[in-house]
Amino acid sequence: MSWRLTAADLPDLARGATLLGTGGGGDPYIGTQLVEQVLGEGFIEILDPDEIADDLFVIPTAQMGAPTVMIEKIPAGTEPTLALRTLEEHLGRTADATMPIECGGINSMIPLLVAAETGLPVVDADGMGRAFPELSMETFAVYGVHGSPLALAGERGERVIIDTGDDDRQMEWLARGITIRLGGVAHIAEYAMTGADVRRTAVPRTISMALALGRAIRIARERHESPVSAIADTLSTTLYPHVRELFVGKVSDVERRTTEGFAKGRATIASVDPASKDTIELTFQNENLIARRGETVVAIVPDLICVVDAESCEPITTEGLRYGQRVRVLGISTPEMMRTPDALATFGPSAFGLTEAFVPVEARD
Amino acid sequence: MSWRLTAADLPDLARGATLLGTGGGGDPYIGTQLVEQVLGEGFIEILDPDEIADDLFVIPTAQMGAPTVMIEKIPAGTEPTLALRTLEEHLGRTADATMPIECGGINSMIPLLVAAETGLPVVDADGMGRAFPELSMETFAVYGVHGSPLALAGERGERVIIDTGDDDRQMEWLARGITIRLGGVAHIAEYAMTGADVRRTAVPRTISMALALGRAIRIARERHESPVSAIADTLSTTLYPHVRELFVGKVSDVERRTTEGFAKGRATIASVDPASKDTIELTFQNENLIARRGETVVAIVPDLICVVDAESCEPITTEGLRYGQRVRVLGISTPEMMRTPDALATFGPSAFGLTEAFVPVEARD
Questions:
Q1: Per the database entry, which stretches of residues form a coiled coil (chains A, B) (predicted)?
Q2: What is the distance in angstroms between the Cα of A177 and the nearest Cα belonging to chain B?
Q3: Which residues are paired to A249 by β-bridges?
Q4: Which of A113, A146, B123, B200 has a CA positioned 20 to 30 A from the CA of residue B314?
C-alpha cells in the first residue's frame, strides 16, 4: 500500500533504520534533521512497489563514505539532489521517483531528502535490505540491474559520472576513490531502473519495515514491555521472520580504524557475570560481518548482526560502541532473495574475505 | 603554416618531445609505435594556430599517470579516442580537431594517435610548452579556459566524466584518484575550446618545434657536428631563445619512488674530474623542478631543465637515469607567457612547494 510519510515519522524511522544498519550505514539522526528542515509540515509520498507502473523511471539516491567520517562532515543537503539531476542530465531522462539503495542507516534518509526537495515520491524498497559497505553489494545487481552510470556530487558542487558497464565492483572501486578524495563523503545517484525492474530486483517494503520497527521499540518502552519481543513480533510477518538473542553483556574492548574509506575493526562483549569467561566477538567493515562466541560462529553476513542497548533496545552503531556499555546482540534472518548462491557471491562471507560458510542464523543450534 | 606529418617524422618528433619533457612526460617511444601502426602510409594534418577558424571546436587529448608506470603498462591504443568520444557525447558536440595539452613526452603522441584513428587534424600548440606533472598546470587555465568537464577512459572501457567548474586543481585531484585506481595510467580529453581560445591561451607551434629539435639533433650527429649547438640554433628563433649548458658530468646518485601517482626523487651528477667536488643536484616530480650547483640554484621550474647524453645529446628521462651515465644538463628559457605572475602561481616554484623564487635561466650569472 502506498502511504504518506511526515516529519513526525522520522525519529521512529531513524531508529528502525539504525537497527537495519547492523552497526553501519551511518547515523540517520543528521539525516532526519536535514529532511525535517526541508519537509516542514509537508509529506512525502511513499509508493508500494507492487502498485507502481512497469515503466515508472526510478533513480535511487544515497550517501557514500565511512560512517566515522559522516558524523563529522555534515552535508549541505543539496548534494543528493545534485547527484540525481546530474544523472538525469547524463541519461537525458527525468526521474519519476527516487528510492533507497540501502534501507539501513543514513541512506534511509537521503532519498527522503531528495523527495522533500524535488517533490518526487519514494519507492518503498531498497537494494540491500539492510546496510552493506560497498555500492556493488546490491540485490539490484544480483538480479541484473547494474549501477552504471553512477553520478556523484561533492559538497563544493563537484560532479562526477562513472560508467563501468556491467562491472559494479569496478564502479564501487572508482567511486570510492573519488569519495576519499572529496574528504570521505559524497552523494550518489545510480542503479536507475524501471518499476518492473524494482519488482524483480529490490527488497520490498523496507522503509515501512524500518518505520514499524522503530515505532514498535518506542511503544514497548512507553508501555514498559520488552522491546526485544516487540522487534521479534514486528519482524514475524516480514521477509525477516527469525530473531535470535545471541548475547547479553558489556562491551569490554573495541578496536576501530578508518582505512581505505571504510571503518574497520572489532568489538568484544563479555558476560556481566565476573565469574564467566563467556564473550562474543564482532568483526565489522562499516557493518557487523561475523559474530563468534568463543570458537563458534553464531551469525554471519548477510544475516543481520545488531547491537542494541540492553534495556532500551536503542540500536548502537559500531562508531557508537563504548567500553562498559550494557548491550544485547541480536541475529536477524535476511530475506531468502539475499541468500541465493548469486546473492551470497555478491555480499556473503567470501565477498568480505571471510572463509566461514554462510549458515542461516535460525539454523544454528 | 599548416603541414602534414607522416610516420617518417615520428622518431625525430619523439626525440624532441623527450627533450621538452624535461625528464618527465613519459617515454614517447611506445607512442610512436602506436601511431605508426594506425597511420601506416597516411598522414596527419597539423594546423597552424594562426590559420584556424575562430569557431573551430578543439578537444585536446592526453595520457595521465606516472611515467614509471606508463613504460610498464602499455595502452591498448583505443583509450584516448574513447575519452574524446565520451567528452563529445557529454557536450553534445563533435570535435573539429584535437591538440596536445602537453608537448613534452608521450603526450606529444597521444593526439596523433587520436588523429590517426579518427581522421581529425591536430592543432600545432599545447598548454604546457613542455611537460608538467599535473593537469591543472596549463597556460589554458592561466588565460581563462578551464579543464572541466574532463572525460577519462580506462583500458577496460571504463568511462568517467569529472566536472569541477573553474577549479582545475580539484579536477586534477579527482582525476588523479581515478587514474591511480585504474592502475596508474588513464587517457583523458579535457580543456575543450574554440580556435579563438587556442590563440589566446596556448603555447603556439610546439609540435613543429619538437620535430625541429629532434631533427636538428639527428642531423648534427650524422654530420659529426655539435648537437648542443644544433639545439641552441633551432631554439634561437622560437619562443625559447636561451639555452645554457649548466653542467657536464656523470650520474653519481639517483633516488626515485612512485608515490601518490607521481615519480618523485632526485639525481646527483658529479664532475668527471676525480679531484673535483663539483656536483649538480636535480629534484624532480615526474619532471626536473630545480637544479642546484652546490648551494646555488642554477635553473628552476618553469624553465626547462634537460638531461641529455654527453655525446649524442639523446634526451634522458628521470626514469632512464642510471649510475655512471655521462650527461649534460641544459637549462632552456620558457616562453614569456609562462613567466607572468599568474603563470608562475600555476606552475612556478611555489606550485611545487619550492621556496626558491623564479629567476630566468638566462638572468643567472
A1: none
A2: 6
A3: A327
A4: B123
